[in-house]
């Protein structure tokens, strides 16, 4: 599932948390995967949380755009790789992972 | 060709390096010494609040999944075990010793992010291969320490290397050879010897770009981990391309692509936890 970071004001009950929300010591206030309730949002606001990463359903067009972005970045990172078979396989493996995360 | 500092001058530079924090030096020395006095070392670390904060931030992260809060260094040692906490102590100590500063061109935060990422890749790969993950993490964390040495001891030379890399789109190694007369693996090795790092870590630092038969498995792991970290685009090592991957190192380790593929989600998760080390 893709994720996006939004402000607490934009967050609505029913959205799903994509990344743990932690306090300054790394203690977890709310774990990834939790579906946000009114009460949870109010509690986070009291704890001074201002931004959250939530799961995001993306359109096929948006997905295609992000895959193109991934490929563009991989082109740059692997620009000196030539035809090296190991690096080609590495690139494929990383691409598969990246696209799978979308 | 070589119009920079001769290698000897570069190494004289290394001799002016500040000593490591005592706790970090002792923790590093404790590898391979089962009789190390855990309580004494934990006690020394507790004196440095900045270090304690960083260790506890990671110990409290979702990665370790403790139900109750890890509040003190003593709790952390008890809950994680000395073996696991050593790598956190070394990371926290070094990041404290070489923090990011706004007045420098060098983005130390991105530097540490690359080194933490490499450490995490090394730890996860080592785990798959049945090797010591914590030692691999530390070796990965320290692999580019030579760059930190150059940046600390002669920042103007460091900037010249960075400019050379960017202008000619060449590897960091070539730029360093041309500007400094020595590269970060050689300089890092000198620093690691001076700081009495365990020998396997010294070799991993020296050979991480060109591991050979005699380099040892740790150097092979750090080599692959560094390449993987570049491919995953974690942090910034000072150059923006994936370096060559040694086929002999790959074969010596007995790695497979299935292993790497299965490791990526775990690397992602651990990297998020270990990165809590950064920041104020």
Give a description of the structure.
Chain A folds into two domains: 2-56, Molybdopterin biosynthesis moea protein, domain 2; 60-100. Helix content of chain A is 42%, strand content 17%. Chain A has helices spanning 38-46, 60-77, 85-100; strands spanning 2-7, 21-22, 28-30, 51-56. In chain A, helix 2 (60-77) packs antiparallel against helix 3 (85-100). The longest helix of chain A is centred in the last third of the chain and has 18 residues, at 60-77. The mean pLDDT of chain A is 88. Chain B is mainly α. Chain B has one domain: Hypothetical protein af1432 (Orthogonal Bundle), CATH 1.10.3210. Helices cover 66% and strands 0% of the residues of chain B. Chain B has helices at residues 7-15, 22-29, 38-46, 49-59, 73-80, 82-97, 108-128, 133-142, 145-153, 155-168, 172-180, 184-194, 199-207, 217-231, 247-253, 257-274. In chain B, helix 2 runs antiparallel to helix 3 (38-46), helix 10 (155-168) packs across helix 11 and helix 13 packs across helix 14. The relative contact order of chain B is 0.15.
Number of domains in the coordinates of chain A? 2
User: What's the Cα radius of gyration of chain A?
Assistant: 18 Å
Q: Which bin fits the share of residues in helices of chain A?
A: 40-55%
| Structural class determined from secondary elements of chain B | mainly alpha
Count helical runs of chain B.
16
How much is the average pLDDT of chain A? 88
Provide the gyration radius of chain B in Å.
18 Å
- Low-confidence sequence ranges of chain B: none
User: What is the number of helical segments of chain A per DSSP (H or I, 4+ residues)?
Assistant: 3
The CATH topology of the largest domain in chain A turns out to be: Molybdopterin biosynthesis moea protein, domain 2
Name the chain pair with the biggest interface and residue counts per chain: A-B, 28 and 31 residues
The pLDDT mean of chain B sits at 86
CATH top level of chain B is Mainly Alpha
């Amino acid at each position: 599932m893709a994720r996006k970071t939004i402000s607490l004001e934009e967050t609505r009950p029913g959205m799903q948390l994509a990344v743990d929300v932690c306090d300054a010591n790394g203690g977890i206030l709310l774990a990834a995967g939790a579906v946000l309730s009114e009460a949870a949002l109010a509690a986070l606001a009291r704890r001074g949380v201002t931004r959250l990463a939530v799961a995001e359903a993306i359109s096929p067009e948006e997905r295609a755009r992000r895959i193109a972005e991934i490929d563009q970045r991989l082109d740059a990172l692997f620009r000196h790789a030539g035809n090296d078979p190991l690096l080609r396989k590495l690139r494929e493996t990383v691409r598969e992972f990246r696209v799978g995360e979308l | 060709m070589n119009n920079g500092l001769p290698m000897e001058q570069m190494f004289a530079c290394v001799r002016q390096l500040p000593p490591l924090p005592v706790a970090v030096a002792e923790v590093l020395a404790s590898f391979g010494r089962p009789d190390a006095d855990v309580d004494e070392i934990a006690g020394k670390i507790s004196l440095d609040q900045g270090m304690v904060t960083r260790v506890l931030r990671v110990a409290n992260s979702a990665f370790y999944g403790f139900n109750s809060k890890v509040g003190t260094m003593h709790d952390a040692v008890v809950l994680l075990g000395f073996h696991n906490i050593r790598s956190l102590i070394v990371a926290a100590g070094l990041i404290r010793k070489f923090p990011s500063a706004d007045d420098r061109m060098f983005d130390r935060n991105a530097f540490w992010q690359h080194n933490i990422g490499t450490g995490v890749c090394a730890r996860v790969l080592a785990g798959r291969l049945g090797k010591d993950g914590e030692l691999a993490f530390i070796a990965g964390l320290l692999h580019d320490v030579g760059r930190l040495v150059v940046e600390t001891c002669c920042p103007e030379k460091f900037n010249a290397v960075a400019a050379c890399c960017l202008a000619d789109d060449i590897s960091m190694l070539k730029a360093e050879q041309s500007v400094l007369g020595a590269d970060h693996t050689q300089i890092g090795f000198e620093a690691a010897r001076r700081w009495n790092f365990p020998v396997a870590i010294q070799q991993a630092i020296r050979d991480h770009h060109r591991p050979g038969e005699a380099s040892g498995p740790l150097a092979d792991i750090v080599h692959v981990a560094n390449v993987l970290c570049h491919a995953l685009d974690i942090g910034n090592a000072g150059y923006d391309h994936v370096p060559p991957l040694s086929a002999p190192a790959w074969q010596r380790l007995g790695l497979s692509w299935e292993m790497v593929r299965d490791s990526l989600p775990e690397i992602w998760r651990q990297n998020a936890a270990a990165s809590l080390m950064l920041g104020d």
